[in-house]
Fold these 3 entries.
Entry 1:
Amino acid sequence: MASSFAVGNKFRERLRELLDGGPAVPHDLQKELHSILNGDAETILSFKTARKLKTYLQAAGHEVHLHELLDDSTLFLPKYEPPPRNPELVARLEKIKAKLANEEYDRITRNVNTQEISRHGTLAGFGKQVRSVKAAVVTVFNFLVTVVATFACAYLGSQYVFTDTTARVLSAVIAASVVGLAELYVLVRTMEGDLGEP
């Protein structure tokens, strides 16, 4: 909050003229004004001294008014220095900031699996994938063996019914196709059950 003026050169010159010629200035006011005249480049005139000077100018009947003297002056606003912060409050704020940062971190990372050792998954996941591939390979191998065995049995068994090789091969292909389709049906139903579908 402003409580003084920063006076300029014009104020100093007119103040010198005022002090040199004219009625006697009261001793305490004269002392304050001389300290202003002898001051440095940025001289401060307090509101209290300005009021005394105004009262003197009115009482002495000078033609010069205070606002004319202060024409090139400005309000002096001291630099604001914030009060020191309460250490308990600072510690509490830091604690709250840390808590909020932890909550934000937890919110961001809540869907991250901490057990993963790489982007490919854990070793347990790798074992599960190997078992899944192994089961698929065994299923395909089982399917092929069943179809080939059915073909062989039908081909060898049909020699008692058919004498022609073409008829024997055709009957073996039909038998292998029927068994293969039945095996595929069972395989699909099993896979649907593994996936949780009815």
Note: Residues 123-157 form the longest helix (35 residues).
Entry 2:
Amino acid sequence: MIDEAHAPRERAPWAVRPEASRGRLHPEPGGDARSPFQRDRDRIIHTGAFRRLQYKTQVFVFHEGDYFRTRLTHSLEVAQIARAIARRLRLDEDLAEALALAHDLGHPPFGHAGEEALDSQMRPYGGFDHNAQSLKVVTLLEARYAEFDGLNLSWETLEGLAKHNGPVRRPAGYIAEYDARHPLDLASHASAEAQVAALADDIAYNNHDLDDGIRARLFTLEEAAALPLVGAAFQEVRARYPNIPRERMITETVRRVINAMVQDVVQEASRRIATLDPRGADDIRAAAEPVVAFSTPMQEANLLVRDFLFHRMYRHWRVNRAMQKSKRASQVVFQLLHGGPQMLPDEWRERAGEPGSPGAARVVCDYIAGMTDRYALEEHRRLTDPNIPG
């Protein structure tokens, strides 16, 4: 007997159709059996930016332990969840996966501390946003192909990256710049596949930070179990496996929370889609609200998890120390290179222009945003310690 959840399924009418893709900015011939979105996924995986995610952190700096999540492991986990949800909703799994793998390419080193540092330094020049930077990475900064800058991804993948957090009513910075030459219909919602990738990001992020926080001893499993969503999973595991080792107790609890959230998204999305009765992917884009979302009770439970993590993990004194040191290192590197772009490597220096100029600021920002945690710390030492060769 075939398991219905794993059986091949025909795409729903509201799924994005690869054969109806709006194409690429630079037209390309076919040449193999892959769909446009499979080609996008493969190009993303082969980028230098994707490989560098291995040494960019979620919360902990890379040298704090090999076990904790990095941007790379997070992206892989998001992709797995996105494919699972997309399959259940009969969407294009390859597009959902490509978006999941690309969504963090623009993150700078040191997680949110690095983003805050760059945003503060770039405030006079339009600020810094990692979602816009992800779009810039795949459309400009990755220089791999002879005929174009970036990866020349399909319109649907670029749309999903630009609208990662929903419609962009007032585009600014690089998103506005790119949209001017390759319109992405920014005022509408993204495809259902892009919405799935965004929700998968939330599911993975919160649950894996719970896992890492417990293993880092920032809080206990029992303290997290005071949250209704986590508590229900914890009680189920404890009742079924009363003598299970603690490490397995943690894993079994977190995986049940993930499953509960995935099930909720599938049920709520199915309900909203049935109400909307879309005839195609453009009906999803034109809807008054997202079709892929948590139910109200799950959204409330998820907010409680976020609030718990904010106070018990992201504001823990150990994390605060690491974040402040990392933030300061990023700011110092930016200030030194912005004032002295002649210290940039050749390929960056040629683009930077005059010291202290807006052009130099943007080039230095792009340079730092592409660094790993380790490289950023080494660059800080090279620029500030006279005993270390440049």
Note: Residues 246-276 form the longest helix (31 residues).
Entry 3:
Amino acid sequence: MPSIIGLGINGIEGQWVMLECNRNGFAISTGSACDVKYNKTANALKALSVTAEQGKEFFRISLGTHTTEEDIISLSHFLIKMTKDFKGGKVSAKTENDSR
């Protein structure tokens, strides 16, 4: 679905990210929607070659018709700040094409 973004922050459990986001007014979810009731790596994530460790880091952001550009920017800034705070100010971007 083009309105759902799946992400993971290396070294930070998705459950913790979700709780911090929710506590700060951002409603996000963890895991795959089709396997949310199970405490295991979702079949959808396995099909994408996501490891069990990466599966624990996974969270998803769903965008709706009322989501604004400002909402997305605010969440982005929050995720960056939260990650820096968690990792002691060190944050680097990594994509699936990176060899790092």
Note: The chain has a mean pLDDT of 81.
